[in-house]
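Check out one such.
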Amino acid sequence: MAKLAREHPSKRFALFLACCAVIMTSLLGCDNGNLGLRNGSVEGVILDRDTLSGISSVSITAYSGDDTSGSSGTSGDKAMRYFTTDSNGRFYADDLRAGEWTMTFSKPLYTTVDKTATEAVEIVVVNNNHQEIGPIYLSSRYLNQYVMVKGMLKDKTTGKQIISGNTTLRVGLNTFSNIQPTNFSYGVKVPASDSQVEIEISVSGYKPMTIIRSNLLGDTDLQTIELEPDSYSIYCTWEDVPGWVRDDNPNATVIAKSGDSIVYSAVNTDIASGGFTLTGIPQGATAEISVNLKGYRMHAPITVYSTGNFSGQKHQKISLRNNLSPVMRNVRVTVSSNSWSNGNQVGTNCRETGAKWGPTTVVSTGWLNSSNGIVDLGIQSLPTAYTLTFDAFSDGGATLQTQTLSIPEDGASEYLLNFTI
């Protein structure tokens, strides 16, 4: 019996490598494997059929394969991809498996292209291949579609509706000139748009306003639109301010009216600074300035006149002597002591105003020798509401006692200030 020849080990290894090569070759091109191959890619552009401009933000859905289920209940081999166009209408999709693909397109105000539409794009993707598609055209549905744009125009200062004044409206490329501001309340008809639209509103006597909308896909109510009137300002300076008022630096409420409307209202918190600015006075309007300041009453509103289209700054003095008067009150000063001597002199003064009571010479009349004898120095009229300093003095002007206080505004009767020494 003949013996079988023993094969060399190197031959067995060569056979193993050959088998591996056959297996790998058989796997190439496998639908689910595609070993060694790259999927395909596509790009293209979508244009408006009428304007031939690129359409941005188009939603693209690509379908491939069968979406039916097998008899065993397993899902089919359907594949779907989603992507959109850029600002120039271009799109790009990669990593698409080889085979047939159907692409659909949708965008508001454009005719939707679904899988059943004749405009649906069918392509065949090949591995390791990039292809250009298109251009693809979409038909707009808004070329003959109009929408209404409206809003109520109000004066930002007065809050009242603007009912007069030459008005110009520009909505996108559409301009409406020489209309009344109330026309905008009923609305203007303009072509619909799926892109950004500028709405510019100009009314004589008011600053123009521009409103930006991302689109005009339907009727649009802008609600209340407040326009700032063309205006001028008034720089007011405080004049004739007494030292005791400047030291106190009180708050002053300032109101400016034009007609029946308050056009400026604020609290000036720094009289010591010397001035403040009233803003927003309507162009050509007369302003009446009123001031509410503690310890003072205003004679009458200060009138500032303006004509024409003046839009600069006017200057106005507010005098605490000519335009306002201090609220005064009678102050009676008494000095009491249980140690008066015949011939003593006593008096009182106010440091801030310079008012003086006395000096009065004490004459012994019997009652002054009793305890708490009182010397009545009389009455002086003093400003109220501000801190004042009073000194009681004796023979030779020596200060006996000092009091610091403010005289209350309220009360018609005299105010009693007593020193006990």
